[in-house]
Amino acid sequence: MSARALHAARNLRKGPRMAAMLLATGLLLTGCGVAGGDAETADKAGSVPGDRASTSGSANNTNANNGGGSGSKDTISTETEVQEVIPQEIPGLGRRTRAEISPETTQAVVVTGDDQDSSDSTLQVYERDPAAGWTPVTDPWPAHNAKRGWTEDHNQGDLRSPIGVFTLTDAGGLFDDPGTKLTYDQGPAFTASGDGFNGEPLEGSFDYVVAINYNRVPGTTPLDWTRPLGMEKGGGIWIHVDHDGPTQACVSIHREQMRELLLLLDPEKQPVVVMGDAASLAR
């Protein structure tokens, strides 16, 4: 027996433990260290980016670094979604009408006629907050306008109220100033007499008035008859006390509401009246 054969025989006599060690050494030398898998599977594992087999080990390491188990905390974004607040517009006003209101104006008296040929309308006061936009500060009040309704081209005696956006700067009346912040002219020249279109008495109609700055000079008494556009374009158009009937061109509301309007109007808010039939204002 050769020396090599004698050495092998001695090793075999050491039992199955040595054989198992030799077998394990052979497996490690082949590069296959995945228990229970074949060589092909082992070669693929980790050879493709994102392969599940290759990421399982790194996931386990991550869990171990975080204390192990499913209790590890992931980074949670605490960013709160910011919702844009869109300022409210005055209901019923279209783009063209809104464009006529100065950005500096924060108070608007909106007079909405039922129809272009109707003398019935509604008046409501709005104020503008920089963030929230326009909100009503009064209920809708019943009102009257000119007998024949509304027009975009008012002329003296046409019995129609002018459509548009006009500033409000001056007030007055037969009665004493109720406490308005507008310039107020009080005197007997505001005495009204005669009858309206329905035979109703006009007495008391000018107890309180607010001049609408249509074809007039702002900053003057409502009784000023200067007409920058000419006499033929009319003038002397006011918001005044209602006499239960249509007007010649003015807007009228009940006495207690007229007084409330005078107390609300504030020159610092650059008030305007937005007036016309509903269809025209919606343009």
UniProtKB/TrEMBL annotation:
Composition bias type Low complexity, residue spans: 53-65
Signal peptide bounds: 1-19
Domain of life: Bacteria
Location of region: Disordered: 41-79
Record keywords: Signal
PROSITE patterns: PROKAR_LIPOPROTEIN
Name of the protein in its database record: YkuD domain-containing protein
